[in-house]
Amino acid sequence: MKRSPVTLALRWSGRVLVAAILLFVLLPGVVVAISAFNDRAILQFPPQSWSLRWFYRAFSYADFAKGFWNGLTVTVWASSIAVVVGSAFAFAIHRYKFALRDFLEGILLSPLVIPHYTVGLGILILASQTGIERGFPLVIFAHVVMVLPFVMRSTYISLENLDTRLELAASSLGATPLRILFTVTIPLLIPGLLSGWLFAAILSFNEFTATLFVSSQATQTLPVAMYNYVREFADPTLAALSVIYIVVTATLLTIANSFLGLGKILNVDAH
Amino acid sequence: MLMRTDPMTAPTPSATSDKIRPAVQLDGVTKRFGDSMALHEAWLKIQPSEFMTLLGPSGCGKTTLLNLVAGFLEADNGEIFIDGDLVTETPAHMREIGIVFQNYALFPHMSVAKNVAYGLKTRGVEKREIARRVDEALALVKLTGFADRKPKQLSGGQQQRVALARALVIKPKVLLLDEPFSALDKNLRGSMQVELKQIQRELGVTTIFVTHDQGEALSMSDRIAVMSAGRIRQIAAPDDIYRRPADRFVASFVGDANILNGRLVEKRGDVAVVSVGDISAEVPAAPIAALSIGDALDVFVRPEHLAVTARGASGSLPGTVTTQVFQGGHVDLYIEAPGSGHERVLVRSPGIAALAASPVGAEIGLTIGSDDIVAFPPGETA
């Protein structure tokens, strides 16, 4: 069948459009990645001369190393606490009908509509009023609040997909509710819990706005350290850090994908 | 299930007593979901080792009844007894029932052996004993050698066998089957039915079987409870349900039936005489007790209870053959008989003689060739 010129034109313009969109998505990353290899101490594109020294500086700059470990501490604690707390709430909201159920769900999901700087500012005001020092618990608390909705969503969807007849079958076989929870429900929810944890971890590790308010010099995370750096220096160290960050995240996601499947990791996005 | 007893050979006192304790008993059990009545005052006694089928269209309350016996739902009113013990408020995990779901509900993260062992582990059975009983159960359902497979690696029929083994291995007081065959293809369904029935009889396990398939119900059950709109309409042996349906719902839901317009001619105690044109037939009097002589009524006649005879033969209804359908073992004849008050009457004639004897267009007479005719007050076709 011969295609009309209109069909051909549409077909090619479609391809060009897709290519353009992909280019725009990748463009910032590509520009930054190339700038990272600039030999000169300015952010410039394209570089005139090439060097790896900003990578060396990214690794050796003490605030970044500290920020990385601080961020990791906050991320692991915040995601883990959020998975336990968020799953418990998701379970209650999914399984039980009680007064104020919708209200509770609304409150727990509200960080989605409240800007992060509001969360950070609010916690900062509360902390200074009550005299709580700006240590790790405060940063972790702020992060738990912000990632909770994502973890809840992830667990909630896994619960929706769980066939309740499995639990009924287990109970007919003599299993107490607690035994069912540990031998049937939780094992089947694990992919959802893991994906929720992973999603929370990525969000938490990247979180900047609220963290800027609630962290101190001792507890600043990597994004905050990067912000402080860029206020003083304009060299390509941050670009080098970006490259490292992209490579590490992509590697982790690839590994997670081969164990869990990308569909399961992304099931937070599926609804 | 009364046994003939002889004082010399009577084995146990329970066998000689008038009443054997029912395996399952429902006393006026009612269940509402919001405003809708899912189950209305169900009274039911199931004898030990009995295969009881709950038959009805979807939404009739049969699954609700099953879930109430299982303990997955709480009754609003009435009492439930299992093995003579009051269990109305007993949680599901303490009722000792086995259940096979329509989708089998095998634990996807456990091997076949772990699935079957689950109920034994919860009971704290010792390890070696578990292994022995799991092997035994898998042998019973002909799945020896499949112990280490995951449910995903099994066919639908095999998954069902695992579900059955898992339910039976705990030696349940009652086995509940929730439409277990509906997900299987037709050939497999037939052989699984035979096999299940064999296992059930062999083990003598009291069974409640839920289905909307009347063929399945008729072929497998000791007794059938026909349900509609939350009510049990009739509880009887399959042949009684088929031959003596208690109401027009049962008559039309179970088996095929021609509904012919008739009149009440005579009442003689338990039986009544009705007429359809020149045909007259005896029917049970109870369902039409409220009618008086000469009243119109609906006569329910199974296709195989009608016969074709010569036009004008005494006690026959004139008709014309409009369609012949060869079905292999029998021939279906569709007959236009204006006197029946019904557009098309279906006659099921065994063998192949009717193919030649009643060609399309043949002018024939219809007669009723059976005693198993029932009549109900006129009403809407169910």
Give an overview of the whole structure.
The complex is a heterodimer of chains A (271) and B (382). Chain A is mainly α. Chain A has one domain: MetI-like fold, CATH 1.10.3720.10. Chain A is 76% helix and 0% strand. Chain A is built from twelve helices and no strands. The model of chain A is unreliable at 267-271 (pLDDT under 50). Chain B has two domains: 18-248, P-loop containing nucleotide triphosphate hydrolases (Rossmann fold), CATH 3.40.50.300; 256-376, OB fold (Dihydrolipoamide Acetyltransferase, E2P) (Beta Barrel). Chain B contains ten helices and 20 strands. The radius of gyration of chain B is 25 Å and the shape is elongated. Chain B starts with 12 loop residues before the first helix and ends in a 6-residue tail after the last strand. The model of chain B is unreliable at 1-18 (pLDDT under 50).
CATH classification, class level of chain A: Mainly Alpha
Task: Find the CATH topology of chain A.
Answer: MetI-like fold
Instruction: State the low-pLDDT regions of chain A, or none.
Output: 267-271
Q: Please give the number of β-strands of chain A.
A: 0
Shape of chain A: globular
The assigned structural class of chain A equals: mainly alpha
Number of helices of chain B: 10
Identify low-pLDDT runs of chain B.
Answer: 1-18
State the domain count of chain B: 2
Strand count, sense and closure of the main sheet of chain A?
none
CATH architecture label name of chain A: Orthogonal Bundle
Fold topology:
The complex is a heterodimer of chains A (271) and B (382).
Chain A: H1 5-35, H2 53-60, H3 62-95, H4 101-109, H5 116-130, H6 136-161, H7 164-172, H8 177-206, H9 209-214, H10 222-232, H11 237-260, H12 262-265
Chain B: H1 13-16, E1 24-33, E2 36-46, E3 51-55, H2 62-70, E4 77-82, E5 85-86, E6 97-100, H3 112-122, H4 127-140, H5 156-168, E7 174-178, H6 186-203, E8 207-211, H7 214-220, E9 223-228, E10 231-236, H8 238-243, H9 248-253, E11 258-268, E12 271-276, E13 279-284, E14 296-301, E15 306-310, E16 317-326, E17 330-337, E18 342-350, H10 353-357, E19 363-368, E20 374-376
Parallel strand pairs in B: 3-8, 3-9, 6-7, 7-8
Antiparallel strand pairs in B: 1-2, 1-4, 4-5, 9-10, 11-12, 11-14, 12-13, 14-20, 15-19, 16-17, 16-19, 17-18
Helix pairs in contact in B: 3-4, 3-5, 4-5
